[in-house]
Amino acid sequence: MIYMDHAATSPVRKEVVEAIEPYFTEFYGNPSTIYKVGREAKKGLENARENVAKLIGAKADEIIFTSGGTESDNIAIKGIALKNKDKGNHIITSSIEHPAVLETCRYLEKNGFEVTYLPVYQEGIVRIDDLKEAITDKTILITVMHVNSEIGTIQPIAEIGKIAKEKNIKFHTDAVQSIGKIPVNVDKLNVDLLSISAHKIYGPKGVGALFVRKGTRLETVLHGGGQEKNLSSGTENVPGAVGLGKACELAGKELEKNMKYLAKLRDRLVEGITTNVDEAYVNGDTDKKVPGTTNLHFVGIEGEGLVLLLDGKNIAAATGSACSSKKLEASYVLKALGLDDVHCHGSLRLTLGSENTEEEVEYVIESIKEAVARLRSMSSIWNERESKMKDLEDKNRCKTCSLE
Amino acid sequence: MYTDKVMDHFQNPRNVGEIEDADGIGEVGNPTCGDMMTIYLKIEDNIIKDIKFKTFGCGAAIATSSMITEIALGKTVEEAYAISKNEVADALDGLPPIKMHCSNLAADALQAAIEDYRSKQ
Ligand code: FES
Q1: Residue at B115 is within a domain
Q2: Is B57 in contact with A392 (Cβ distance < 8 A)?
Q3: What SS3 class is residue A314?
Q4: Which of A322, A381, A395 sits opposite B56 (nearest CB)?
Q5: A296 forms bridges with which residues in the sheet?
Q6: Is A260 exposed, middle or buried (0-12, 13-18, 19+ CB in 10 A)?
Q7: Residue of chain A whose Cα is closest to the Cα of B37
Q8: DSSP strands (E only) in A49-122
């Protein structure tokens, strides 16, 4: 199988599996206990913490382990909001955040907070001027993702962080899609809080971390035994944390090599597709992107069909088409770029990983070419696309006037 | 999530194409997710002699289009008009609940094509 959906999840590397294994069978103790098997577990946990911290230029005691990016985002956003509710009730985020951020913000909106969702324009990147304008004396938190999962665009985190610092506003970034893909340093990025997930960087699912800068005070939103600095609770997922630690260690070592390699593969992929397929367009900024990620749309076809045809050729990829979503709605990220439903329909996301090869890329280009041609030969709008797309756009506009 | 039959009709759709001198053409759009389907009919002696489709839509939309053309071919106009969306879905061994509207679309497109034919009589 050719796996090109690394933004969804990634295979766990052998080295990671090997590092984890003894923590299931040998060092299975509860790290809160004082006897040997517990101490061994604790050692593994703290070693993992060091590794996570090292990758992002933090100190080990600024890292708490969580069950993944979603938990990290919840702890950070709700924690800051509740802690500072006497100072203000305004939060700024972007319109293309992960649901873990967006839904948390919506929840807070229902509970007396006000949220500004910054637009991202055609390039899929927030603008600093919009941010400056949005800040009020009630703003207590800015939360903007480092890299978007669907289109791969890199947000100007360091700049946002600088402004937040000047204004004394806490700043959180969801770095789930940037860790291990581009350099991430909490000091250079000027962030107070940063979310990490293991399974996007060849680690196990169900484990992640949150960086909390020393001195940043959070209200506890997850109550229990208080194992992780009283911000997260429950007996520690030691094997998971060890896996995350190992994945971070490897990601750091191989970062530069992988960045070059993936950029090369991705550039060839995009070039191959856009030169071989008519009316194929890249979604979002083409430069300010993590290496390895591309999102395109093909006029006149629907993405779920495309994904299924590619699956038939043993290729795993993703789409932002309404037809393949649970709610039958086109991707809100693509819509935030100003794409209407009919263009979102034909979208395809390809996210490469270090195990992909040049031959695979060539095969994928060929397969996409065939699949798109096949779907277009069946498409009721391809031949008269100009008039029909226009019709559909007009119809959709009524449905989604929020865009206009 | 799709049955083998859906996948078969999606991957090897029957009766794809257009009929140039069609006796009836039905074009419908899907308000739920925004896809479009067109069905072309050739009718002789009140019998559907030829039927073709073109669809801009998901795997289920293509499979239901293909299936409904197969069911309708050779039927009388009245029989074809009576084909229900459930009949199409059943013939495909079922559709995921969220995809039932796609079979709706196929039935609507066929009915629209028949109405177009009738309006020209
Ligand atoms: S055509 Fe959109 S869900 Fe079937």
Answers
A1: no
A2: no
A3: coil
A4: A381
A5: A282, A348
A6: exposed
A7: A380
A8: 63-66, 90-94, 114-118
In a domain, B83, yes or no: yes
Is A308 in Cβ contact with B33 (below 8 Å)? Answer: no
Cβ B57 under 6 angstroms from ligand 1: yes
In a domain? residue B118: no
What is the three-class DSSP state of A228? strand
For ligand 1, atom 2: residue with the closest CA: A323
Q: Which residues of A are catalytic?
A: 323
Q: Looking at the predicted structure, is the pLDDT value of residue B31 above 80?
A: no
Most A CBs within 10 A among B33, B37, B100, hence the mutation to make, goes to B33
User: Any chain A CB within 8 A of the CB of B98?
Assistant: yes
Q: Which residue type occupies A249?
A: E
Say if the Cβ atoms of B58 and A305 lie within 8 Å: yes
Helix (H) or strand (E) run with residue A388 in it: helix A385-399
Assigned CATH class of A13-252: alpha beta
CATH at residue B30: 3.90.1010.10
Q: Which atom of ligand 1 is nearest to the CA of B33?
A: 2
Q: Could you list the beta-strand ranges (E) of A82-169.
A: 90-94, 114-118, 139-143
Q: Write down the CATH superfamily of domain A255-391.
A: Aspartate Aminotransferase, domain 1 (3.90.1150.10)
Q: List, for chain A, all residue ranges whose pLDDT scores fall below the cut of 50.
A: 397-404
Residue A401: the pLDDT is 34
CA distance A353 to A362: 15
User: Tens of pLDDT along A80-125?
Assistant: 999 999 999 999 999 999 999 999 999 999 999 999 999 999 999 9
User: Which candidate in B58, B62, B64, B104 is best for mutational testing of the A interface (most A CBs within 10 A)?
Assistant: B58
**What's the pLDDT score for residue A393?**
66
User: How many other CB atoms sit within 10 Å of the CB of residue B21?
Assistant: 6
Q: Do B103 and B85 touch, CB atoms closer than 8 A? A: yes
Q: Is the ipTM of this complex over 0.85?
A: yes
Residue B95 lies in a domain: yes
Q: Tell whether B57 is within 8 A of chain A (Cβ).
A: yes
Q: Which residue of A has its CA nearest to B102?
A: A323
| Domain count within chain B | 1
Residue B115: count of CB within 10 angstroms of its CB: 13
User: Per the structure block, which two tokens stand in for B24?
Assistant: 């009836």
- Give pTM, 2 decimals: 0.93
Instruction: Give the domain extent around B93.
Output: 4-110
CA of residue A8 relative to chain centroid, distance: 9
In chain A, which segments carry CATH 3.40.640.10?
13-252
Q: How far is A379 from chain B (nearest CA, A)?
A: 5
